[in-house]
# Entry
Amino acid sequence: MQKIIIIGATSGIGRGLTEAYIQEDCLIGIIGRRENLLQEIYTQDKNKLFYQVCDITDTQTSIQCLETLVQEMGGMDILIICAGTGELNPELAYQLEEPTLLTNVIGFTNIADWGFRYFEQQKSGHLVTISSVGGTRGSGIAPAYNASKAYQINYMEGLRQKATQSPYPIYTTDIRPGFVNTAMAKGEGLFWVTPVDKAVKQIKEAIHKKKKVAFISKRWKYVVILFRLIPSAIYCRM
# Structure
C-alpha cells in the first residue's frame, strides 16, 4: 500500500489528485490551510485519509505537520507539492508579490528539502512538484509568479541531479501545467484550458511512469519550445 502526502489538497489539482488516489489502494496524507475543506475531504474515506492544517509559509509548523502525518501513516513513499499562489500584478504592488514568494519559493524550498532528505534517509522515494509552463519566460503582468515557477523548475533540476547521482532509487517529477480550469487560471483570453479531471489523469500517469518532466496537457510542450526560441527583443514587445 503506497503512502502519499499531498501539500495543497483543499482545491484545484491537489484536491483532484487526492480524490483520484482515494480510489486506489493507498494511504493519503493531506495538508492545507482551510480545515473545513480538509475535513470535507477526510469524510470521503476516514480509513485512508489523514490530515493536518498548515500554511506552508510557516516553515517550522509545516515540517511538524509533515512529521506528524508520516508518523500517523507509518511512512511516506510519494510527496506531492501542489501548494502555490500567484496574482496578476501589472502595477507591481509588493503586497501582491510577497505571498507568492513566501509560498512558491520559501515554503516550496522548505518542504522539497525536507522531503528529499527524508527519502535519502529512507533510501527510496518520489518527490513531485507542480510548477508551471509560466516558468519558461518572464511576465510583465505576473512577474513574481513566473519568476517563482522558474525557481521551482531550476530547483527541481538540481534535486534531479542529486537523485541521479544517488545510489538509492529516489525519483523526482516536475509537473508543468499550462492553463488548468482552477482558481489559479487568471486573466482573459486563456487558451488550451485543461479540465481538472484530465489534468489529474495525466499527472497520475506521469507520476506512475516516474517521468522527470511532464507538461499538462501534453501539447504545452510545443508551446514551451516555441517560447524558448523567441528572441528576447521580440518577446519583450509581445
Remarks:
- The helical segments are 12-22, 35-42, 59-73, 94-122, 143-165, 196-208, 220-229, 232-235.
- The radius of gyration is 17 Å.
- The CA atoms of residues 8 and 155 lie 19 Å apart.
